[in-house]
Amino acid sequence: MTLTSFGPANRIKRSAETHPLTWRLRDDGEAVWLDEYQAKNGYAAARKAFADMAQDDIVQTVKDSGLKGRGGAGFPTGVKWGLMPKDESINIRYLLCNADEMEPNTWKDRMLMEQLPHLLIEGMLISARALKTYRGYIFLRGEYTTAAKHLNRAVEEAKAAGLLGKNILGSGFDFELFVHTGAGRYICGEETALINSLEGRRANPRSKPPFPAAVGVWGKPTCVNNVETLCNVPAIIADGVDWYKSLAREGSEDMGTKLMGFSGKVKNPGLWELPFGVTGRELFEDYAGGMRDGYKLKCWQPGGAGTGFLLPEHLDAQMYAGGIAKVGTRMGTGLAMAVDDSVNMVSLLRNMEQFFARESCGFCTPCRDGLPWSVKLLMAIENGEGQPGDIETLLGLVGFLGPGKTFCAHAPGAVEPLGSAIKYFRPEFEAGIAPVSAAVPPLARPIVVGA
Description:
The chain has helices spanning 34-39, 44-52, 55-65, 77-82, 108-115, 117-131, 145-160, 191-198, 227-239, 241-246, 280-287, 321-325, 345-359, 365-382, 390-400, 410-430, and strands at 2-3, 94-99, 135-140, 176-181, 222-226, 257-263, 270-275, 297-301, 335-340. The chain is α/β, with parallel strands linked by helices. The chain folds into 3 domains: 21-245, Rossmann fold (3-Layer(aba) Sandwich), CATH 3.40.50.11540; 260-340, Ubiquitin-like (UB roll) (Roll); 345-444, de novo design (two linked rop proteins), CATH 1.20.1440.230. Strands 1-7-6-9-8 form a 5-stranded mixed β-sheet, with helices on one face. Strands 4-3-2-5 form a 4-stranded parallel β-sheet, sandwiched between helices. α13 (345-359) runs antiparallel to α16 (410-430). It is globular and about 80 Å long. It starts with a strand and ends in a 21-residue tail after the last helix. InterPro entries: NADH-UbQ_OxRdtase_51kDa_CS (IPR001949), NADH-UbQ_OxRdtase_suF (IPR011537), Nuo51_FMN-bd (IPR011538), Nuo51_FMN-bd_sf (IPR037225), Nuop51_4Fe4S-bd (IPR019575), Nuop51_4Fe4S-bd_sf (IPR037207). NDH-1 shuttles electrons from NADH, via FMN and iron-sulfur (Fe-S) centers, to quinones in the respiratory chain. It is an enzyme of class 7 (translocase). Keywords: 4Fe-4S, Flavoprotein, FMN, Iron, Iron-sulfur, Metal-binding, NAD, Oxidoreductase, Quinone, Translocase.
């Protein structure tokens, strides 16, 4: 897997003017440590933020830039920061980096943490200054052992250089940063489940309100941002709002650049930093190189397993939240997956729903029982043992587990690909329905939910 931001045949070169996230990457894929990072203008933005900007000005700059969360939800970062309390008497606040990258087909944060750990630290340092947080945690997916090693080394380098700890850059501001590895749960990507896990509790989402900005870690004001989101902050502070907005393509309502990728049976699977507004076709054909010889594109997901399937004719959609919404799904993480024509959609969905059912925290009934029910129905259809009405039941589950019907967004994301697969490939599901003569009467057919 290519973890670079080069275009096809290295036609597109990275520069600070066009690739704020990845221009410092080494060609050999090794990590950029402190001396090299500072030689490449690293921590210059932090010095500017500490020396020349009031804390509220940093918040306003990020808000004006249009930066949105890069973890999948796309909430405006500056607005989120603005929710933190203004009361100076609240002197204990926390900044959390959500690095629990468990979304299938997604590996963008891993690249940043493994190869540019100081970029994340600088982003968190500036953010902590803006939010008046005295302690930060990087909540890291447990399987990312290399990222943990590199982040811990980078934290120690920053401490030794006076960039973390007490009286940073002579400002009187203190900020401690810790790397905390999780136990491996998809649900920890939900910010309040992450907070519960960090506190040593079961990783269940919390009821909101109160929101973490008011009551977060150990009951104190807390801001949670994704890795890629925080890594955008230094460039915004260093080069300004107008420049950052100019990076996006015309027509995009999202600003800046985004780490995008393609996996599956494409010729050049990889990860690239691209401006918001590029089309799916550019990403698929110009960067991923199209399908491998002997394979044909059947459908694709634009941003992880929790986004709906799209058809080849949807490749002309622009890659930003509103552009993908126009063709019926979400941008998600921006790392697409190509499904080739040899794949049976029922089998693919059964595999996906098994994952989502296993990763449910079990807190609310629709998710806890509905997802295993969908798996049982899909297994029956996959084996040619589906019964009349099973497809309608699956579609009913898509509705029952949709947005606003469950405690958090886990179940809606889990069933979105299921609904789109039935919409576009219903004959494949119908092929697994047993003939009426062989059907078991509905009342005689047991379905053990949650087994």
